[in-house]
## 1
Amino acid sequence: MKLYEFARAPNPRRVRFFMAEKGIDLATIERPQIDIAAGENLSEAFRQKNPMGGVPVLELDDGTCISETMAICRYFEAIDPTPALLGSTALEQATIEMWNRRMEFNLLLPIAMAFRHTTGHFADRETVFPEYGKDSAENALKTLNFLDTHLAKQPFIAGKAFSVADITAVVSIDFARIIKFRPDAEQHANVLAWHTRISERAAASV
Ligand SMILES: N[C@@H](CCC(=O)N[C@@H](CS)C(=O)NCC(=O)O)C(=O)O
């Protein structure tokens, strides 16, 4: 199998983190780098693998391509359910799905929009709205404020156990450094303590 990715981008890191938590040795996986800054992901050849043009894409040995970060994670969870990163019981699965979607829509998305619309990084392929970028950063900050209260009550985003929701949130926060958006030592002490714990996991550094 091959994982088409761009090492610096957040969604590919979510998949690498997930795979490493599953005990997959990433050194054994071919990982072609698709330079999204140069627009390689928009080429006709890459769109054959993912018509939406984004990374990551997992290509199986028979040539089947799976894109969408969570679809790839679900594939690995189905192959090897232990450790369960998407939950085991119906309630755990629903709770983790709920929190992961919240982290995608209320943290990763606004951070990505803040990056794209304040820096104009992808001005070659989209209209840049700086005001929207600023507003997105404010929305991401509201989520951090909320998370600080949330993480005062429980050790992980989705409850008592580490899950994909923690991966999504930590990767989003780390990516946000690119626009100098960081949790604040006073305002977000619980977020920072949780972030330190998650970052100490071996899989966080792949
Ligand atoms: N919904 C997709 C999003 C994929 C995506 O947008 N990836 C970014 C990198 S994190 C990308 O390829 N951006 C390049 C572009 O938008 O042209 C997923 O969950 O994997």
## 2
Amino acid sequence: MRHVYFATFFLAVLTVSVLGFRGTRSTRPPIELFPDMDHQAHLKPQAGSTFFDDGRADRPIPPGTVAASAPLDDDDGLYHGMDADGTPLKAFPATVTVDAKLLARGQNRFTIYCAPCHGALGDGQGITKQYGMTTTPSYFDPRRVKLTVGELFGTITNGSPKTPEGKQNMLPYADKLSVEDRWAVVAYVRALQRTQVGTLNDVTDAAQKEALLKSK
Ligand code: HEC
């Protein structure tokens, strides 16, 4: 019989604790489980502060921070890889200088962010293939060789186009690579493509002569 009393008592406590005494007000302060989290020293955004030397509560953005979105006064070519009417660029934006330094930076970023899937050569044979990611394509198939620099920039920025089922097989890298770094990676992807599908006409006259001499 005893457990019936217990059960009734328990039910009554539960009912009161969930529903409470409706309408009654308490003047006592609420129970705070973590008072040090509820009440901690903090500064309001965009307000002043005497704590820091420059008198501002907001701290300056650390150098090298990657902006998640393009600035408002954006340059379509540089930030979106498109010209004003939305056509993907066929050539690098004027402010991007493609030189050995840019390629070296591109190789560095590519090795970190792209090679795990696309492979160091860009042939789609990255380490993730061994773990079941079989959909990574090669950069050397005729359609991908024809992708313009603007389209490559768009893929890095926004990820791969969605499949008919609405799935995106490659996610965007805009939050991991700055605009400059994305152009560096584009240049490096182009260089990788040239290693496989380039012709003698792609190099300077001097380099052509050198290659011909060596082949003799
Ligand atoms: C997690 C694996 C993964 C990583 C990392 C990755 N990709 Fe991809 N990438 C894919 C897959 C999968 C596809 C194929 C998408 C499809 O066709 O649906 C793809 C497609 C592409 C394409 C072809 C797009 C097209 O129009 O066919 C390019 C170019 C590309 N990736 C470049 C890059 C670059 C540059 C990076 C590094 C910044 C990168 N990818 C990082 C998996 C990855």
